[in-house]
Amino acid sequence: MLQVFPLTLPQTISKAPANCSDADRAALLGFKAKILKDSTDSFSSWIGRDCCGGDWEGVECNPAGRVNTLALQRPVRDSTLYMKGALSSSLGNLLFLEVLVISGMKLITGPIPESLSNLTRLKQLVLEDNGLQGNIPSGLGHLPFLQTLSLAGNHLTGTVPPSLGNLRNLVLLNMGRNSLTGPIPSSFKTLVHLQSFDLSFNLFSGTVPEFLGQFHNNTFIDLSNNKLSGHLPVSMFNLVSLSDLSLSHNQLTGSIPDQVGNLKSLNSLSLSHNKFIGPIPGSISGLQKLWSLNLSRNGFSNPLPAISSKGIPSLLSIDLSFNNLSLGTVPKWIIDRQLSDVNLAGCKIRGAFPKFRPDSLSSIDLSDNFLTGSISTYFTNMTSLQKLKLSNNQLKFDLSELVMPDGISTVDLHSNQVFGSLSSVLNNRTSSFLEVIDVSNNLVSGTIPEFTEGLSLKLLNIGSNKIAGPVPGSISNLVELERLDVSRNQITGTIPTSLGQLVKLQWLDVSVNQLTGEIPSSLLGIKSMRHANFRANRLCGEIPQGRPYNIFPASTYAYNLCLCGKPLQPCKGKKQEMGQ
């Protein structure tokens, strides 16, 4: 999770400052010279002798004409904006610099210059979302006034230098999304003013340090997606200002202590994908501000705490999926409140679908349970519902009776006993918001309906059913489709040539059907294809001779009538096939 920090620029004067010093101008031009390509167009304004006149983008100066700010930021999601090159050591000559921000440039590679240790006035150093490599220089620990240090979203490796423990004024430390290794340095215990601490998405090992309990001002801790092990230190639950705590995707063990109830400011708690055991402590009911609780994929066991209607009053999202819980029924304290997300997959819930409050739910995941009966009319009034996941249950109902709200984007009903025809779900009234339909491994029959324009489907999985008839040519209207699985049905006819118009398709499975004719060469137009399976049909003719079709394993084409060409045996006489 990326913590947003305020960019506090140093005081600049509104009247014209002195011309910028020659040394600072030379240092800036040295930085510019190492950037080989700049699609952000930032440097087009770096002309003329005066870098302090206000025209040089990202540059600000103090009244004496010394550069005190260099701030160049671009949005990460815009792939067209980047700088390509390296960071010049000349940045270390900007001796009056208080703010150095170069972020979102994506293709600035190479090391962090050692010379940055000369910038002893620096208060903010932000080098996020570039392509920086190598170790973190130990000299960064010699910047006594530093309050913000963010090196997140690079390719940094090695251990964190203990010298960073010298940065006693540090308020924000973010090294997330790198490949840093080793334990969290014990020297960090001196960083008692930290308010935000993010080491997520690295390779840190060892235990969660006891000294975290001394960071009394801390509001945000994210150590998720590492290799941390051992028990949680009880001291951590002294942090009465902490609002966000994420330790998910580690190898943490033991139980959650009752002291978790001391975290009175907590908004979000995520401990998912660990090895925690034991019951969930009842003290969580005292967390008045908690709105998101994710304890999924651990070994938590019964009993679930009895929480009153006034307990956890702010709760909006709960995920207890895939633990060792045997709930039987969904607890009343979950059913009766206005939640937006309920995830109770693999919680051994039995019987009929629970009657949640319909007005607030946007996401329901009750997959991998023992739900039975019909759900056809449950969702009529759930106007906010966007995601519905009920796979791997024993639900039995007719698809034609299923009424879905207009705004739904994901419907996953695979591996149940659903019957009826697809035409009730896919027709000219199908919502343009719908992106995922998975009804595979059911008893669905009928044919594949025609597809109208304007649909946003990205995944369509109807495999392992009793669907007959052809694949309609109007499949080409599913222009956003990335994954199509119609395998293990009774589909006949040819593979439509129009399938080649689905340029975003990455996964195609038409195996174990009764398809005839050729594999159309139009599929060569799909450059994003990563996986295809044409096995066990009645296909004949030359396999499209281009990547990736001619380098897929031979098993992709096995058990057909007379396919030939790489990766199978050459075609006899190699006639010019129709449609090529």
UniProtKB/TrEMBL annotation:
SUPFAM superfamilies, sorted: L domain-like (SSF52058)
Pfam families in alphabetical order: LRR_1 (PF00560), LRR_14 (PF23598), LRR_8 (PF13855), LRRNT_2 (PF08263)
Gene Ontology cellular-component terms listed: plasma membrane
Domain Leucine-rich repeat-containing N-terminal plant-type: 22-62
Cellular compartments annotated: Cell membrane
InterPro entries cross-referenced by the UniProt entry: DNA_repair-toleration (IPR053211), Leu-rich_rpt (IPR001611), Leu-rich_rpt_typical-subtyp (IPR003591), LRR_dom_sf (IPR032675), LRR_N_plant-typ (IPR013210), LRR_R13L4/SHOC2-like (IPR055414)
Keyword Iron-sulfur: no
All residue ranges annotated as the Disease resistance R13L4/SHOC-2-like LRR domain in the record: 89-198
Keywords: Cell membrane, Leucine-rich repeat, Membrane, Repeat, Signal, Transmembrane, Transmembrane helix
Name of this chain's protein: High mobility group B protein 7-like
Organism this protein belongs to: Hibiscus syriacus (Rose of Sharon)
